[in-house]
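Collaborator request, handled under Task 6.
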Amino acid sequence: MVVVILGVIANWIRAGISVKNLIRREIDDLFTEEASNYYDEGKFDELLAHCKEKLNKNPNHSYALWYKAKAYYQKQDYEKSKHCFENLAKTEPSWNESHVQPYLEKIEAIENETR
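Structure tokens returned to the collaborator:
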């Protein structure tokens, strides 16, 4: 009897963890969709606020860092953009070559032009 009860409890725990993970993925997908919409519409201040909210809860959220860096880039705040891209490279090293370095190179070229 005890074994059966422990088995049922274990199944409830597994189901709860699965539901929690599913909800977390859905929330992340919703965040990314909203961030993409703000970016596409040129609503960079709204995008920054959206990212700030996410980063307050999860300071290493990759997509929040990505969109925050891109929003600052579009606002021509290259110093903040550069800082965000550098943080993203630390958080997601696999993104460095494809997502981070192209922007850092553009920022460096812009900074060199203005000197």
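The cover message to the collaborator said: "Residues 6 and 12 are 10 Å apart (CA to CA). The domain at 2-113 is CATH 1.25.40.10 (Serine Threonine Protein Phosphatase 5, Tetratricopeptide repeat). Please let us know whether this matches your experimental observations."
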